[in-house]
Amino acid sequence: MKALVVAGGMPQITLINQLKERGIETVLVDGSPTPVALPYADKFYNVNIFDIEAVKRIAVKEEVDFLITVCADQVLLVVAQISEELGLPWYIDYKTARLVSDKELMKKIFVQNSIPTSQYVVMDAFDAGQTGHLHYPLIVKPVDAYSSKGVKKVLNEEELRTAFEEARDISRSKSAIVEEFFEGEEISVDLFIEDGKAHVLCISNSDKVKDDEHFAIFRGRCPVHASDELKAEIGRVSQKIADAFGIKNAPMLVQMLTDGKRVTVLEFCARTGGAMKWLLIQHASGVDVIKGVIDLTLGIKPDIKVREPETRYIVNDFIYCRAGVFDHIEGFDEQLKKGNITDYRMLRPSGWKFSGMITSSTDRLCGVTFQDDTLEGFNRKHRAFVESVRVIDAEGNDMMRHDLLPDLDA
Question: Residue 215 CA to chain centroid, in angstroms?
């Protein structure tokens, strides 16, 4: 068999390796000429992965048996469309993939099905009058972007106009959504839908860089701070989303905000969280969601058995950099051998140029996993890591933002 793997990020390395373990040849397509998954694929094409016709031509030329991706929301739509057009298997049809990839369509279904979400408007041209019923602060985001690109918090009409224009320019459909800001803690809910039933795998907090405008995540952590009643509400709302969108068998990620009692849904997608989220899920629940996606694509029923977390504290930290050209890292392997970190995964190759800005998840260099059963033990490991590792740029300087990696609070 032969698979066309769409997108070559870090999670696709594991995807490709698992496909090879099943004896499946892999053809990788990615818009970057040097994606991190490139060395693992049998064949590579450097193409714009959102160019439907270009990707489809490769699928036909290579006579692949299926297309596949993991941990990527907008790419999900590409795979669904091409798979449907070529009559190839995929776990979600194109119509549903559109609904879960377009924030405007998503919001409409939320409202129609009484799923808690913020008041909003969608515009393709700026019109302050359309937002008159909304209360500041507001959140502006492209209707069809990913990785928090173009997402900004605004406090007045002047900021709204600027943020709207930026979000619209990023959007492929040239429109943006404006919604009321809900004051609360952000949580990520990762699930696997099996025969229509939503199994909660992991509820984690998303800590973000302190920036009033942008929403780049620097840490994903569990356990989440939630009462049993709130956890039940999270499960109820998640099931309601799966029912409303007709999702029967698929991974699912729901982004919510909570004030400790209520939740409001920001957005969701029929996929696993990006970057290192699949590893966090595996440590927290024992479920290998990448294996689950392969099984679904091959027509095999996934075995979803949720178990207790490996340790009490499981955290993914993301490393950001100052401006410069990345050359190499130092001290990471030593920290791995000492047991201070469980693993680390590179998201960008040597030679990658960082602007120093932190606006979305695309600005990360790598991800690191920490685990321990006590808060004191966790912070001891974490401090040892932060104090000893370095990220070296092309001029020999440490470009790592050590300041963005605080201790974990109780």
Answer: 13
Q: What digits encode the pLDDT tens for the residues 69-106? A: 998 878 999 999 999 999 999 999 999 999 888 878 89
DSSP 196: T
Domain positions in the chain are 2-90, 119-180, 185-297, 313-404
CB 238 within 8 A of CB 189: yes
The pair of three-digit structure tokens given for residue 7, joined into one six-digit string? 């997108």
Predicted TM-score of the model (pTM) = 0.84
Q: Which phi and psi angles does 367 have, rounded to 5°?
A: -125, 145
CA distance 231 to 313: 18
**Helix, strand, or coil here: 78?**
helix
Contact 162, 117 (CB under 8 A): no
Class of CATH domain 2-90: alpha beta
Cα–Cα distance measured from residue 366 to residue 345, given in angstroms and rounded to the nearest whole number:
6
Q: List, for residues 115-165, the tens digit of each pLDDT value.
A: 999 888 989 898 888 888 888 999 998 887 665 678 888 999 999 999 999
* 323 token code pair: 């401006």
